[in-house]
Amino acid sequence: MVVNAGPMTEEAEHNADQRDPARLIPSSVQSPSSVRGACPSLAAPMHTGDGLLVRFRPSDPALSIQQIRQLAEAAACHGNGLLEITSRGSLQIRGLREETLSALEADIAAAGIVPDSGIVIEIPSLSGLDPTELSSAGVMAENLKRAIAGMPLPALAPKLSIVIDGRDRIGLGSLPADIRLTATRREGGDPEWIVAVGGASRMDRRLAILPNERAISATVEILRLLAEIGPRARGRDLSIDRLRPSFPDIEMIEMTDPGRAVASPIGLHDLGSGNLVFGLRLPYGQIHSAELIAFLDRAEEWGVYEVRPALEHCLMLVGMRPEALASAKLAAANFGFSMSTDDPRNHIHTCAGTRGCASAFYDTKAFAARLLTASGLLDGSTSIHLSGCSKGCARPARASLAFVGAPMGYGLVVNGSASDAPVAYIHENDLKSALDDLSRLVLNEKGAGESVDACLTRLGSDYIASALRQG
Length: 471
Ligand code: SF4
Description:
The protein is α+β, with helices and mostly antiparallel strands. Helix content is 30%, strand content 22%. The protein is globular, with a radius of gyration of 23 Å. The relative contact order is 0.11. Residues 21, 48-49, 351-352, 357, 359-360, 387-389, 391-393 line the site of iron/sulfur cluster (SF4).
């Protein structure tokens, strides 16, 4: 039965409270309020329903097979064995305890992996490898880190991010950033960098087009301006008036996008000269250490010598021998990796669920398997978030549909995030019929050429809730 969303019952509130991770937070890790302002890291892990979570980005994204194997072993030894790659390509280890953190840190160091610290600087996973890269994002990032290290900076916003996009075949144009450097080349000239602030690449405010060293100085200047505003300032907070004295040409910079076809990291990338990179999306963004280690053992047989975490929960296998491809594809399928951008699983975002999190109200992975049979909902336009509880760890952003675990059933959120109020609750016994009803509704209501996501948005949550109640 689909029921109206209403205020939580006393019992539900009690149950939710019992499962509220905030009740268990030790004083040395992030509190719920600090979670809103900062990302979890090795120094400041975050409490989740399955223990502590650490997120980090190796300062050298190219990891040898041995390094990633050691990392997986450390995740199994000190955490619950689950290893994740986030949508932005960071690594996450779950299920840690306060007393295991220092041992994990020591094992990461012993593997020769140096987690990035300080301001987050993101570069494309194929930087330095892909011959189509216009200018090396990796080299720029190193130079920028050195420049920032020598700069006395007051506190900056904890989630501040700098994206450096050398414009290789994948790039980082889809990632929002506070400061963005995008490689460009004016006719007949050397590569330069478009310096921009705020938002996603199409929404950026472009400030200047500069050669390497001056682009770094400009970035340092933007950080200084942000620090002037205060410790929570983001790129979008920089007004033209504040920027103009440092960037006098700001209003003359052409606002057009550098424009290019950008590939998904998922799938095969032929870098030329027999250099193949195989991008595999982790099944629902995570993998158990034992499975990863078993897969890496096979990968070595195929010639893979290096792996790189990448956007969209991907692991890039570098060095694949062409003749090993058939065998690699078979193994990847058996391990549950997604190898194609058409895979409907790419559009389902699940958290650990009851298989790995004490706060979860349902098995998100089992739900995902059921969802795949409700084919009418997954046309490539929709994002469906399966969240074990309203914390929404797997996807802070909105989704076309979110099914949020709650004591009274699956809370259905339309066009929102897991923390939004559900429009209806679906009881476990009614899940199959509710998914069928949703698929049928979309099929009947969708206009010619309209995507499922656009259709759901047009119908709106009230209409969808009432249609579900009528069955
Ligand atoms: S969203 Fe999922 S992983 Fe996060 S706390 Fe809730 S149940 Fe656990």
